[in-house]
Structure formats: C-alpha cells, structure tokens
Write a structure and sequence with these properties.
By secondary structure, the chain is an all-alpha fold. The protein folds into two domains: 136 residues, Ferritin, core subunit, four-helix bundle (Ferritin), CATH 1.20.1260; 139 residues, Ferritin, CATH 1.20.1260. It has nine helices and no strands.
Length: 344
C-alpha cells in the first residue's frame, strides 16, 4: 500500500505573527481531540488483528492519526494555546483486554472514520487562511482520501461490501411533475439517484454505528451510560430498518448488518469517557449526514423520516453531554470574550 509523504508544516509562506482565527482555533482544537481518541481505538485494534491486509490498513491509519495529532499540537503550541487533555492510551485504554471485534469490522470502522475525518477537513479548508494551517488541512484531506481508496480496495477484494445499487440510465433529459414531492398520498414516484445514494450511505454509517454501540453497551461500567447506549442502539436499529425498507420497496439492495462482528466479550478495553465521547462524535457525523440527505431529498416521506431521526439523535447527544459534564469529562472549546464580565 502506498503511503503519504509526511507533512512539513514549516512553510516559508507562513507569517507566524498572524494570529489564528476562531475557525482555525476551533478546527485545530477539534482535530487534536478527535485524533487523540482515534489513536486509542486503533492501538487496541492492532493488538487483536490477524488478517495481514487489514493490519496494514490499521497501521497506515494509526500512522496518519498520530501525525495529525502531533501536527495540530505543534501549531497550537506555537500560539501558546493550552493543549486539550483529550484521550491517551495510558489513561483510557486497556490494550490487554480480550478481542471485542472480528477483523472485518475494522475495515468498516475505518471507512466510517475516514468519512468522518473528510467531513471535518473539507469544511476547514475554505475557512482557514494561515498558510501552515491551510497546508495541514489539505494534507489531512489528501491523506485521508488516499487511505479511503485503500479501504475500499480491501472491502471489495475480500467481498465485505457491495456497491451502491445500479439504476437505469435515462433515455433523455426530463423535468419533474406536480407529484415530485409526494410521499404519503397520491402517486409516489420512485426514488431518484441522490435519494438512493444518501439512503445507502446512511445505512452504511448506521450499521457501523450500531455494531460499535452494541459493543460499548456490553463493556461499559456505569449503568447510566449502558442505558443510554442501549437507547441509542434501539433507535439506530429502527433507522436502519426504515432506510432499508425504502430501498427494498424499489427492489434495490442495501448494505448488511455488522452486529455479528462483535464478540461476546464483556471485559472493558475502553474508558467510559472514551466510549461516550466516541458515540457523541459518531452521532454528530450522522446528524450532518441526515441534514445533507434532507437537502437532496424531494419526497415528503423522506424529509419527515430524517427529521424525526435528527430529533432522536440530538436528544441522545444532549443526554450524553450531561453525563460528560456531570463526570467532569467535557472540555470547553475556545470561545469568544465575555465582554459584559470585563471590568477594571
């Protein structure tokens, strides 16, 4: 597998007297925390993998994640910005815990994680202006895209995944009619290509999310967090069923469940703090994905389905945040000055 050339952020075009903007600070802060989380999971996966090709993928992902972590830390240190605590292998991981996932799951997980990373980096690139930060996020995007190509190659070569459905090519250009938005009454048109693509993507994301939260609910130590994970698992399963039903109604195939790739181990490899943060982070990407799906879906039934799902996920994220706050686990992102509290 080809690897990316390591990044040198010491650009001659960088004016280090140029202060970081709020967008640059926020993205670097989130990048550091997210990659500190990822190093823990990837380190654990590498302790329990047998397939040589999958191990190479994990090693490449771990190398990139470590580099992203170190580079974001380096830029923040130049600004005397307090480095977030984030997560660490020493405090948040028990690498000796028994295997919790089969090898195949790691590839699906990596695809999900790469999509999550790309969604962060593509938003950052238009917002950042300082050259070292801009070069960093371009490198993150290019490296993650290269990793995604390797992931898809392994998925296809090992028969772990099927491509999105094939639909007929139109014979000519066409324009919509009055029933285009119908979803409940009257003539309901077939799904169009973008709706199919987003249903497929949402199923793919959610089957990975469900497998992970299933594993977390087996090994978490706090009952309150276990109950929250079970709630998330239940509504995630319902979302998958709804999405699959939409495709099957059009005689289109859907991605398969991954639950069988979770072992029966109940020994805890991850801290509750790490698992809870990961699920909040994972659901934040699904919220973005649902929002994108609503934007391209014309049928009313799809819009309502995604909106209801957004409400359920948002409530989960709120309840998870409350637990994080109660336990003193939630770090404060950089924020604007409170002018009303500034006094001589």
């Amino acid at each position: 597998m080809d690897t990316q050339k390591p990044l040198n952020i010491r650009s001659t075009n960088t004016n280090l007297s140029e202060k970081l903007t709020s967008a640059e600070l926020g993205k670097l802060w989130a990048t550091y925390r997210g990659n500190s989380m990822s190093t823990c999971f990837l380190h654990y996966y590498l302790q329990h993998v047998e397939d040589i090709d999958i191990k190479k993928l994990l090693e490449e992902a771990f190398t990139l994640t470590t580099e992203f972590l170190n580079t974001s830390e380096e830029i923040l240190k130049k600004e005397n910005f307090p480095i977030p605590k984030g997560f660490s292998i020493e405090e948040d991981l028990n690498p000796q815990a028994p295997r919790l996932f089969e090898d195949e799951f790691y590839v699906h997980y990596l695809k999900y994680a790469a999509k999550a990373g790309m969604s962060i980096y593509k938003v950052a690139i238009p917002l950042v202006f300082r050259k070292d930060v801009e070069e960093f996020y371009k490198y993150c995007m290019e490296s993650t895209m290269a990793l995604m190509e390797q992931i898809k190659e392994v998925l296809m070569n090992k028969g772990f995944i099927r491509k999105p459905p094939i639909i007929p090519i139109p014979e000519k250009e066409d324009f919509v009619e009055k029933d285009f938005l119908n979803g409940y009454v009257g003539h309901v048109r077939p799904l169009h290509a973008l709706e199919i693509a987003h249903l497929y993507d949402n199923i793919e994301n959610n089957v990975a999310s469900k497998a992970l939260i299933t594993a977390f609910s087996q090994v978490t130590e706090q009952e309150e967090i276990r109950d929250l994970f079970k709630r998330g698992k239940n509504f995630t399963h319902k979302h998958i069923e709804l999405f699959v039903e939409k495709l099957h109604k059009e005689d289109l195939p859907a991605p398969s469940y991954l639950d069988h790739l979770v072992t029966t181990s109940t020994d805890t490899p991850f801290s509750d703090k790490l698992m809870l943060f990961h699920k909040m982070d994972m659901f934040s990407m699904i919220i973005r994905s649902f929002g994108n799906s609503v934007a391209v879906s014309g049928r009313h039934d799809l819009g309502v389905m995604y909106t209801k799902g957004l409400l359920q996920i948002s409530k989960f994220a709120e309840d998870a945040a409350k637990i994080m706050i109660d336990n003193g686990w939630m770090e404060h992102p950089p924020y604007a000055a409170e002018r009303d509290k500034l006094v001589k």
